[in-house]
Amino acid sequence: MRMMMLSLARAAARAVGHQSVHQHSLPQLSQPGVRRWLSLSAATSRKVNDLYRPGLQYNRDIPQPVEHQALDVDAVLAEHASDRVWTDDEISQLHYDHALFTWNAHDNVSPNALQMVRAEGVYFWDQHGHRYMDFNSMAMCSNHGHSPDQSVVDAIVEQLQTAPYAYPGMFITPIRAKLSKLLSQIFPGDLNTFLFPSTGAEANETAVRIARLMTGRHKVLTGYRSYHGASVATASMTGDFRRFPVEQGSTGHSHFFGPYPYGFSFGNTQQEVVKNSLDYLQERIESDGPHTIAAIVLESIVGTNGILKPPKGYLEGVQSLCHQHGILFICDEVMAGFGRTGKMFGFCHADVQPDVVTFAKGVNGAFLPLGGVAVCDRVRDHFRKNNVSIGSTYNSHPVVLASAYAALQYFLRNRLTEHAAAMEPVLQAGLNRLLDNHPSVKQARCTGLFGGFDLQKNTKGDFIAKVTEPPTPALLAFRKVVAEGHSCCWCCCCRRYCCCCCCVVPSCFKADFFSNSQKKSAATVCRGTVYHDAGSQRVYQSTPRHQRGPDQRRH
User: Fold this and answer.
1) pLDDT grade, residue 111 (50/70/90)?
2) Strands annotated E in 279-400
3) pLDDT given at position 487
4) DSSP letters of 89-157?
5) pLDDT at residue number 76
6) pLDDT of residue 104
7) 335 in helix, strand or coil?
């Protein structure tokens, strides 16, 4: 009764603008005072409740329940019977009516979108029977190709039949324990402990939350030439144009230029580039306030923003700055991880040991959605005593973990990392031929089987399109060429940075893939761009950016 009176008294006090009534002050109130507050509270309640009393005249319409048509289950199931044959036109129309493409305006993509009806090894087929070489590993993720080893299929089926789901916040599953042990043996140093969200974006968001909780700081520094995911937080971490629509929804993100900005150069030699870019980063840290920065997050090798391997000494310098200021050093290995670059992880090309590493894609060849976060022992020990404060329904999903456990064993047995390293010269030679034969190719490079080539509109090196412009007609024409079956090579082209990514399937790429037919199909990629002065002498050569003249580095 006392608590009820206190609650009512507080409500009445707020209604008349009085200060909050504290528990210790209630005994001093006179009985008439309490009655007055209770009376005010009842009056306020009547004014509110009158709006919803039946039979009274209202000043606004009250929404009425909507009657939904009952589902005809039998008719629906009959329409989707397993023996029904769907025509290609039906599939296209159904997709247009009931689905949306990611990233792009639906109507820009739909007319020339391929129907992928079958896939095997490094190839996939469209609805017309045309075969394409997957020159991008789909979303840089199909590291095992499009034919899962039978051991992976068996592991998925067995887990489905044994324990298809377990709540990750309360239960131990054997598959999570075994996969964590295997990963602790694969990761270098003391990266021994793991969380398993569902995507790379979720992995990066988890890593940032870990850093903020552990350090008590809020800011996160990332590069402008970066991509870290499509959630609000990870898109805000992203440095390219994909952050523009969402960055107002997440705070604490600050961006800096890495060693290879577009509009200017940090130097003419690798030593100058490393020194000047690290001096610049040091000043950014001091300007932002090192005591406010929880983490620096870097793609160990920049992915869709250019396939850029940092110069020797750069990652080491970033790690040193992190240690100096008590900042967590986080490496995003979502694209580069698990052998694609010719080493197990992209950061293994440098002499660094990150505090946290995020991964996805290659961990199970993207057969099922899986991300991951690896933390060092120091971070692990902190969260043994403190809440990690993150989780989700599908975190550590047993079936998905089973796919990764089997896929990683296949990956190790077949030495896919070593194979990617051995194939690097083959891929680079093919890229160099594009550079030599097509004036629209500005530069080409690869690390392992993680590569790409830049496209230019003219010999001045102008971009094909600006980030604020709609997709250039040249790229739309290229997509149409591919959709009509005139090319047997599929790759991904970023309209802003004019970089075609060539992330070939590590498990399937062989030295003889650059046959005459494959050379022809790769050349189609270049012919799909508009080159305004194709008769001019091409001035860009296959040389590292830091070795180019000032006019070449400008773009």
Assistant:
1) confident
2) 293-299, 328-332, 356-359, 372-376
3) 54
4) HHHHHHHHHH---SSS-HHHHGGG---EEEEETTEEEETT--EEEETTHHHHT-TTTTS--HHHHHHHH
5) 94
6) 81
7) coil
